[in-house]
Amino acid sequence: MYQITKTEELATNIYYMEVKAKRVAKSCEPGQFVIVRTSKDGERIPLTICDYDRENGTVSIVFQIVGGATQFMSTLKEGDHFVDFVGPLGCASEFVHEDIEELKKKKILFVAGGVGTAPVYPQVKWLKQHGVEADVIVGAKTKDLVILEDKMKAIAGNLYVTTDDGSYGRHGLVTQVIKDLVEKEGKKYDLCVAIGPMIMMKFAAMTTKELQIPTIVSLNPIMVDGTGMCGACRVTVGNEVKFACVDGPEFDGHLVDFDQAMKRQQIYKTIEGREMLKVQEGDKHHGGCGQCGGDE
Amino acid sequence: MDVLKRVPISEQDAKIRATNFEEVCLGYTLEEAMLEAERCINCKNAPCRNGCPVSIDIPAFIQKVKAGDIESAYHIINESSALPSVCGRVCPQETQCEERCIRGIKGEPVSIGKLERFVADWALEHGIKPEKAKNKIDKKVAVIGCGPAGITCAGDLAKLGYDVTIFEALHEPGGVLVYGIPEFRLPKEKVVRKEIDNVLSLGVKIETDVVIGKATTIDELLEEEGFDAVFIGSGAGLPKFMGIPGEQSNGVFSANEYLTRSNLMKAFKEDSTTPIMRGKRVAVVGGGNVAMDAARTALRLGAETHIVYRRSEEELPARVEEVHHAKEEGIIFDLLTNPIEILADENGWVKGMKCIKMELGEPDASGRRKPVEVTGSEFVMDLDMVIMSLGTSPNPLISSTTKGLETNRYKCLVVDEETGKTTKDKVYAGGDAVTGAATVILAMGAGKTAAKAMHEYLSSL
Question: ipTM for the complex?
Fold first, then answer.
């Protein structure tokens, strides 16, 4: 059993939790993920790691309510437990293994979309701790859905917040901000790391391809075990089939077949299920139905 | 009674069982078991025993069954096997012990497997536990993976008195016994869980949710956590795909995923929250035991199910009993057929599979006749779901994170066959991680071999 030591509602339907998980906290690196279960016979839910504290043995996760399992998870309080908390899974971000001096010469741009801000955070933090300052774009639909802004501000070189509806920060999609930074504001980047909804990563990668900036994306396909056993998470990268859980989750954004990956995310979303979610969740509906765009 | 024939065993009716997940074979009663035991002529040289990968003293336990002393029979089996209820169900006895049975020369061999199952089930029902070690040995052993190899190795070392901890990556112990083999062939609560609990009752500790190679490494176990030796029984791992066009379409699954959803995650139960696709017309590509398990699961979930296999019935790698059961239940066998493309609709969902007819040519390296395409024989099967059951390749998680651990060209761990010792000091291995996909009992045999060698090594320190 893994005790929850802290919870916080970051925004409507987006939650932050700190969990006691010594083995994971000891060995995890930026870019990796965990799989959790809230009850015996419950689903195995893959979640990205948002932060970790090796000394206290805690790992932080951020999640958005997208269905029954995450809805239940949001009701857990400090002192409650996860039945399972497995990790770290997947490979660490490539830069973790790079030569620090070489890394310091690079200008890196992070592009975070929505809940994708959470997995971007430990990467920027790691770089900051190693003397590398990276720029960060945080994009959200609207002001209320911008998360982790203060924490990010403390570690980012320049932080650019943008909202789709213009209610906060810049007005427009993250792709527009990338273009503006490079084309109008004279920025130069050697590497872009884009993490967020699949559709955002697809367009961010298209934009950086035009701008000729090598780009890494982090995929979150359907998976069961997370150790390479089931093959549910297979994605086409270049012309090769990769398993996101063991080969990824980070891949070259210019080579990922996003259209296929997006189709594969719909596998267990039935027509009935979509309708049910819409009715059940009403105004709170944020995706998971596969058609409203909330999880795109 | 005709001594040349076996005492028949009762099974659930094929039509009824095709719609449920209850066990197919119902097992012997005490009377039936004693009657079948009478057929054993208790040969001195016991060829059956040489056919058993864990060398169970078969004639000895059968003599006890003959006498109606089932508890003693259990303890004889348990000296050699930690999982007799499992083995009595899933071992390929027909190519092991029973193949060598002297009774089999003229008539049917003694039903050794069914007798083992009877004895072990009886012991589980009567709460008979394996005997604990009398003395503790102050040395720590880590076992990686709680499947058949790991459980056997852990059980044997615990019986000798070692302090054993098993590390399991999934949330449940059992490995392939819980994620791979379906309920109708191997009940989880009634059999698997109880036999694993028996091993744990020997004092074996288990930590689930620990992925070795990620959460911690073998070097850390040896250097920081104070383990004196390590056994790797991490299993086969990554599912293979064919590499044909359309294979990424929605509705194409690996048998591993499909079976894990149904078995480990209980998607076959009506009240389960785990989603599983219930196809209408399903093709399972492959001819092994896993293919049969996947096909029979799909059938029970309501699909018309086909086995698509590129060779003929004779070459099917699955056990004859499994093929027979599958046919009885209504699985359609499309033999000498090979898929060449999976066809999808405009939304990316499977709508069919293009196949080509095959014929058998000259024998290949495996000694089996090589299937050759029949020119111009392409045809399309209408399907909404395809399950690929083509075997697995070893998971590189451990080999890639452990210094000094050599693998062969198939990425399997290199070990000394006599001892299971790897190329790294203090580290032993066995099961699918070494051999590639094989059987439960071979993994158990390897776990046993390694336990013996580890005991010798640890005693010499």
Answer: 0.89
